[in-house]
């Protein structure tokens, strides 16, 4: 089973993670995102994706969670820019549809899991059910849940379901990497104001995002609980500083590359029967001359 590559931003597996101690700014003097480092990361990820597709034994699931304006969309674009689009799929999860509400809370993400040989990206995910729904438990009223609702137990129950599903997926060849893009409240404010000041960014602004700032402490408590309960060697969380977008993107790319390199990806080796067929095909093609 896949095990997490080490990183200074890896959320510990022992439940000791504290949001208040997680930095939102780079913890290094260097900037590996500049120039040749970015190009090399793009080239490596492109090559690894092709070997992943050829081997057809593993799938990769990348989960991105963050407060608004942390840079989820731009990070996904930047990190995956060198990957063959046919080998990658991105899904964004917002307000559930009526169809999704007629299923259990894991259904809408489960049906979008990546096939073997492909990279799947969740922009938000099943974790919304223990983050935004936990902060706004009135949402549960729309979910058609059976029986008596118990707010004392439902979050632990959902976290257990998520954790068990991730372990099942990992046992069956899915490499799971989860990124919490950790933006500061001050930086979020600056980015919101930038969206208001720049006409080209007005379309990004949602008044509801500002209202959610009023629940900042509740969100941080929900993140701390969820990350501690579900960061495991086979499905790790990384708390990536998000106040510096280029640095954030470089760190995410590096972790993905390290993970793919660690699972021994390789092109399939032809069998003796394959080689015999290759030789016959070569002879037939040569005869055409």
Polypeptide structure, described:
The protein is an alpha/beta fold and 289 residues long. The protein has one domain: Rossmann fold (3-Layer(aba) Sandwich). It is built from eleven helices and five strands. It has helices spanning 36-55, 72-79, 98-101, 107-110, 132-135, 154-171, 185-197, 207-213, 216-230, 245-262, 272-287, and strands at residues 59-66, 88-92, 119-123, 174-182, 237-241. A five-stranded parallel beta sheet has the order 2-3-1-4-5, with helices on both faces. Helix 1 (36-55) packs parallel to helix 10 and helix 2 packs across helix 10 (245-262). The N and C termini lie far apart (50 Å). The mean pLDDT is 93.
User: What is the mean pLDDT?
Assistant: 93
Corresponding CATH superfamily: P-loop containing nucleotide triphosphate hydrolases
CATH C-level: Alpha Beta
Low-confidence stretches: none
How far is the N terminus from the C terminus? Answer: 50 Å
Give me the Rg, rounded.
Answer: 21 Å
User: Could you describe the largest sheet, including whether it forms a barrel?
Assistant: 5 strands, parallel
CATH topology: Rossmann fold
Category by helix and strand content: alpha/beta
Q: How many distinct beta strands? A: 5
């Amino acid at each position: 089973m896949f095990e997490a590559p080490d990183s200074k931003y890896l959320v510990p597996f022992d439940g000791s993670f504290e949001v208040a101690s997680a930095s939102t700014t780079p913890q290094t003097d260097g900037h590996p995102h500049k120039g040749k480092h970015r190009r090399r990361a793009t080239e490596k990820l492109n090559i690894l994706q092709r070997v992943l597709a050829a081997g057809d034994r593993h799938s990769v699931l990348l989960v991105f969670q963050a407060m608004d304006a942390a840079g989820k969309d731009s990070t996904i674009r930047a990190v995956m820019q060198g990957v063959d689009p046919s080998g990658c799929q991105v899904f964004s999860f917002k307000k559930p549809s009526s169809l999704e509400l007629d299923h259990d809370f894991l259904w809408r993400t489960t049906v979008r899991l990546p096939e073997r040989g492909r990279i799947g990206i969740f922009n938000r995910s099943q974790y919304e059910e223990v983050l935004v729904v936990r902060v706004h438990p009135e949402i549960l009223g729309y979910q058609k849940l059976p029986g008596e609702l118990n707010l004392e137990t439902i979050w632990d129950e959902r976290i257990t379901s998520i954790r068990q599903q991730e372990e099942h997926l990992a046992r069956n060849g899915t490499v799971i990497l989860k990124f919490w893009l950790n933006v500061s409240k001050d930086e979020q404010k600056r980015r919101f104001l930038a969206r208001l000041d720049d006409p080209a960014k007005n379309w990004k602004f949602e008044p509801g995002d500002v209202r959610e700032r009023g629940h900042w402490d509740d969100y941080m408590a929900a993140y701390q609980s969820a990350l501690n309960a579900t960061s495991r060697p086979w499905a790790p969380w990384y708390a990536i500083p998000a106040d510096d977008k280029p640095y954030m993107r470089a760190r995410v790319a590096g972790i993905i590359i390290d993970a793919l390199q660690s699972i021994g990806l390789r092109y399939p080796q032809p069998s003796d029967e394959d080689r015999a067929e290759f030789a016959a095909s070569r002879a037939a093609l040569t005869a055409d001359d």
